[in-house]
Write a structure and sequence with these properties.
The structure holds 2 protein chains of 2 kinds. In chain A, the strands form 2 sheets. Chain A has a two-stranded antiparallel ribbon. In chain A, strands 2-3 form a two-stranded antiparallel ribbon. Chain A is α+β, with helices and mostly antiparallel strands. In chain A, a hairpin with a 6-residue loop joins β2 and β3. Chain A is built from 1 helix and 4 strands. Chain A is elongated. In chain B, about 40% of the residues are buried. Chains A and B meet through α1 of A and loops of B.
Chain lengths: ~70, ~400
């Protein structure tokens, strides 16, 4: 198992949302979703299976004092 | 061969072999879906062919071989490129793997179905389908949801296992204790649903569920004979199940431990439960929660008459349990024992301290109601019974609580 990439985001107040599904591109002051909890960053890891990934994520959750979501690549 | 004999043989084979067949196939083809479908088809074939051809001398091997062929047929039909390697399993068609390896296979299956990444209700549903071999309609009935809902729950579970890369293996030694806890929690949930079924439309005690829970726990015990908590859970289930017929009256009302006819308790189950508890005591290992709960049940079931109950032993065990798990529910149950030793006034003080956390829990109000009744505080007792009846979800309990409240006069 390996860490490949580690990214930390700036706060949601610095975000911009783009919606270009319609006729014209619409830009809006962020964030995408107003919520008390928000995405602070992400890691890309390489792990053989979910148990390995969960171990890594558990360590990350403890050290960074945050909840962590694990999701596989398609 | 008579039709009845064959039907019995198939039922027995289903009980004994379902999990083995599913586990073996999952291992070979790396896919729970293929394994489940192939196993179901193999058993259907048995139902169709055994009356004419006779029951094979080794039903397990016959079923595994048949299921293996069905799985290969499906893979060929689907004709996916990556499954060509699964097709290579074609040449690997051994009749019967050594017992140890198959035990390992079934453990893999159980631990995967009970993986913590799956929601609890999902784990229960998946375990019942893949390990116990219950049909989707049977599981749906057990949990009072529509068949389509249960079917989707199981389908999504298998999809999540694939997509999230949940590994198909027995957990490593360091993970094992926590993961075993997870499995036991699933089985305990299943047993509880049978022991005190929720909902007004179902019978209050569902023996099919308790029997299934016990059967699965026996399987885990056979696969992990050294584990103390597995033994403890089995003992707890057996000692509880032993009292099943005494628990509900002919009129469908709950009969409390105090009022039960102890002559109707199942002596064989009690003896087995006591044996397991003694075995764990002799092991001299710090007991987990299931072992302690089993020991408490053992103390109760030792007494021929309720007046012979060794309440100080019960209290001592609850003190141990509280140290392990300071949950308010355990504190509540402990208070019932306190009432027997120190009187209802002391117990009520302890129970009232739990008001904030247990306000929505009907046994809290039922316990208060009984203590208040014993203290002669009729009006307060009535109010507490009303609250308990409002919150209770089980028909037998509701009937019992209503009777006690109406007896207050």
């Amino acid at each position: 198992m390996r860490y490949l990439v580690s990214v930390i985001f700036d706060t949601p107040s610095s975000a911009t949302v783009i919606d270009n599904r319609g006729a014209q591109a619409l830009f809006a002051d962020g964030p995408f979703l107003e919520s008390k909890e928000y995405l602070a960053g992400f890691w890309i890891i390489e792990a053989a299976d979910l148990d390995v990934a969960l171990k890594l994520a558990a360590e990350g959750s403890k050290h960074c004092n945050r909840k962590v979501e694990v999701r596989p690549f398609l | 061969m008579s039709v009845v004999c064959v039907r019995e043989a198939v039922t027995q084979a289903h009980q004994e072999e379902w999990a083995r067949v599913v586990a073996t196939l999952t291992r070979r083809f790396g896919d729970l879906d293929i394994a489940e479908e192939a196993a179901a088809e193999a058993f259907a074939t048995a139902v169709a062919r055994w009356p004419a051809d006779g029951v094979p001398p080794n039903p397990g091997a016959w079923l595994t071989t048949t299921a293996n062929r069905k799985a290969i047929d499906r893979i060929r039909r689907e004709n996916k490129r990556e499954d060509k390697q699964k097709e290579a399993q074609l040449f690997y068609d051994d009749p019967r793997e050594p017992v140890g390896a198959i035990d390992e296979e079934r453990l893999r299956l159980i631990f995967t179905c009970c993986h913590p990444a799956l929601a609890m209700e999902t784990r229960v549903a998946l375990t019942l389908r893949m390990v116990a071999g219950l049909t989707v309609p049977e599981i749906a009935r057990a949990f009072l949801v529509p068949e389509t809902t249960m079917g989707q729950r199981i389908t999504r579970a298998k999809a999540k296992i694939k997509a999230a890369r949940i590994p198909y293996r027995v957990p490593s030694a360091e993970d094992l204790p926590a993961r075993v806890c997870g499995v036991l929690a699933v089985l305990f949930l299943l047993f509880n649903e049978g022991y005190l079924a929720t909902g007004p439309d179902t019978g209050p005690v569902r023996q099919d569920l308790t029997a299934e829970a016990i059967r699965l726990t026996r399987l885990i015990r056979a696969l992990m004979p050294e584990d103390g908590e597995v033994a403890g859970l089995l003992a707890l289930m057996l000692l509880t199940e032993a009292r099943r017929t005494a628990r509900v009256s002919a009129s469908g009302e709950l009969v409390t431990l105090v009022e039960q006819d102890r002559g109707t308790w199942d002596a064989a189950l009690i003896a087995e439960g006591h044996r397991l508890v003694r075995e764990r005591l002799a092991a001299r290992v710090a007991p987990g929660r299931y072992q302690i709960l089993a020991a408490i049940n053992a103390v109760h079931t030792c007494a021929r008459d309720v007046r012979d109950t060794d309440w100080s032993q019960v209290l001592a065990l609850y003190d141990q349990l509280v140290r392990l798990d300071p949950s308010p529910i355990i504190a509540l149950n402990r208070a019932v024992a306190v009432a027997e030793l120190d009187g209802p006034q002391v117990a009520l003080a302890a129970v009232d301290r739990l008001a904030d956390t247990l306000a929505g829990y009907h046994p809290y109000h039922a316990t208060r109601a009984d203590l208040l009744r014993r203290l002669g505080r009729g009006q307060n007792s009535r109010a507490a019974y009303d609250k308990a009846i409002e919150l209770a979800g089980n028909t037998a309990e509701t009937a019992y609580l209503t009777r006690r409240r109406d007896q207050l006069g």
